[in-house]
Structure formats: C-alpha cells, structure tokens
C-alpha cells in the first residue's frame, strides 16, 4: 500500500450506484490507497446504509465512520480527517470518478516537490462520464494559485491530495457553510503551505442542476464571510474584498436560468 487515506463524505442524498462507482475508481488505482474512510453524520436511508455495509465487507481497507455530532460538511470532513491514519489524504466525493493514475501522479508531486497540497482540473458530466459538459480548469503553480486565492477558489476540492499533518496544523476543516474548501485553502496559504495543481484532468464529477444550488441569499452571506476572511488573513486588500463582492454576489441573486448561463460561461 502507499501511505494514502481517502476521505469520502457520504450524504443522505447520494445515489448508491454512484457511490459504488466512485469506490470502484478508488480501488482500481495504479497506486491504491491503504484505506477509504467513508464518513457520515446523519441517519441514512436503508439503500445507502446497505451500500456502506457492502463496501466495508468487500474492501478490506474501507471503513465507515459515523460522527453524529459533526456540524455540516466542514465538521464531517474534519472528523474524517482526524480519523485518517495515513500521512497523505486524498479527497473524493461520492459521485466522483478518479482517473486510474490520479493517486500515483499526485503522490509523486507531493514527494518530489515542495507542495503540501495538490489538485487537478475537474471534468463535469451529467449522464455519461465519457461526455463531459465542461472542464473546471485551475492555475498550476503556487504563485498562480496564491494570486487566485483573493478572488476565486483555486483548487477543485474533490481532486485534492494533501499532507495530513500540515493541513491539520493549519487548523483543518471547520464549519464554514458552502465554502468549506476555499476557507481551508486560504488558511493553509496564510500558514505558509505550498500548493500545486497537476495540469491534467484527473477526476470526473457528476452534476445535476448545480447552479440552482449555488444561488440565493445563503450564498450571498457565504460570499460576505469569505471576503471578510480573505481580508482578515491579509490575502486580499479592502479594495480586493469590495471587488470580490461586486463580482461574485450579483450572480447569486439571478434567476436559475440566468445563473446557469453565467456558470457555464465561467465554469465555476
């Protein structure tokens, strides 16, 4: 095995077939992980509970961690991260499909560069994984990633692999609704961690009316919290914070179809 834990949160809404598919893409890696940590914080429908039971029984390295007191996605991820036993942690979501060489390529970057956190581009599809609707491309070098951090999340969260201890020392995940990943990366940058993205698409993610879930006043409030955090961490200036809000909050208030058009234009 290869000193890798996979951190995979499981929500009550996940399709069990997609979960099986995501798990299969993990165990089929050319560099397989030591363990797959499947984390939940809610009571699950019977179909999902059965899927978790099947995965744990059929895969020696997989285990289910139920943490009922974990608050939100951030709390679930932090609880799962603390329960990962390996020094390298790879993130996955239950509707993702990892390229078979994803872990090998990202582990090589972590071992052979100064990077503490490494991601990649992400392809999004609706029905057919071989027919992506768009690709969410991200900056490659640490300097480019740091430059993006003040106005846009520079990593695709479910593509990331990172040094577990370094991320925990930076504070790890926390309850920061709708922007748990950007919050974490900003604090990691402020703590001096180094970033890199592989200039390849190593993960495919299934989407379903994603833009409808990215709008409304809750997201506006999340943008306000994020802009404030970036300013407090000295990642952005006051002027950057104002620009951030002017650029990012209006699309959150658009009707669904208009918001979808904006999302498709910027692929974010």
From TrEMBL:
The keyword Glycosyltransferase applies. Gene3D superfamilies: Spore Coat Polysaccharide Biosynthesis Protein SpsA, Chain A. One of its GO terms (molecular function) is glycosyltransferase activity. Keywords: Glycosyltransferase, Transferase. The keyword Transmembrane helix does not apply. PANTHER family: GLYCOSYLTRANSFERASE, GLYCOSYLTRANSFERASE EPSE-RELATED. This is Putative glycosyltransferase.
